[in-house]
């Protein structure tokens, strides 16, 4: 239930509106954690370079989701509402951590979906929920490559 996208029809990596399109409505009860961000945007958005991380409710995150923002680097996680998070740890996470390439390894353990933007070249999307994973794979079809198979072919 871990996917990587490197070649796709979407306008750029990682465009959250496109990446989350097949599962967005199913994540209505989540808060969003964003850390280790680098991005480009022509829109006014609720993130900036003044903070190491952001924790948003759905309404706050939706402003970013609806924007035309390219996530170049970063970790974006959907976490069920009401879960307490260790913000000290979140502030130190990095999209360059080797664990992002490991299947079923979530940098934010409380996440149900974790998206890693890796240098505008790769988007890694991990799921704990098989239904969400299947919806994602069905939407992206051949563009979503199994992360483990990708690792076996290119990394190991």
What does this structure look like?
This protein is of the alpha+beta class and 156 residues long. Helices cover 24% and strands 29% of the residues. The chain has five helices and seven strands, in the order E-H-E-E-H-E-H-E-E-H-E-H. It has helices spanning 16-20, 58-66, 87-90, 130-140, 147-155, and strands spanning 2-5, 30-41, 53-56, 69-80, 113-118, 122-127, 145-146. A seven-stranded antiparallel β-sheet has the order 3-2-4-5-6-1-7. A hairpin with a 3-residue loop joins strand 5 (113-118) and strand 6. The radius of gyration is 14 Å and the shape is globular. It starts with a strand and ends with a helix.
Question: Can you lay out the helices and strands and say which pair or pack?
Answer:
Elements: E1 2-5, H1 16-20, E2 30-41, E3 53-56, H2 58-66, E4 69-80, H3 87-90, E5 113-118, E6 122-127, H4 130-140, E7 145-146, H5 147-155
Antiparallel strand pairs: 1-6, 1-7, 2-3, 2-4, 4-5, 5-6
């Amino acid at each position: 239930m871990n996917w990587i996208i490197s070649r796709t029809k979407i306008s750029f990596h990682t465009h959250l509106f496109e990446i989350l399109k097949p599962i967005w409505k199913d994540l209505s009860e989540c808060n969003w954690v964003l850390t280790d961000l680098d991005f480009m945007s022509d829109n006014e958005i609720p993130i900036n370079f003044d903070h190491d991380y952001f924790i948003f409710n759905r309404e706050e995150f939706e402003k970013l989701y609806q924007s035309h923002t390219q996530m170049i680097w970063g970790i974006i996680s959907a976490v069920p509402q009401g879960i307490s998070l260790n913000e000290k740890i979140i502030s130190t996470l990095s999209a360059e951590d080797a664990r992002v390439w490991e299947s079923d390894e979530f940098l934010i353990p409380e996440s149900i979906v974790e998206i890693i933007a890796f240098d505008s070249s790769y988007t890694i999307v991990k799921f704990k929920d098989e239904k969400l994973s299947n919806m994602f794979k069905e939407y992206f079809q051949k563009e979503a490559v199994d992360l483990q198979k990708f690792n076996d072919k290119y990394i190991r």
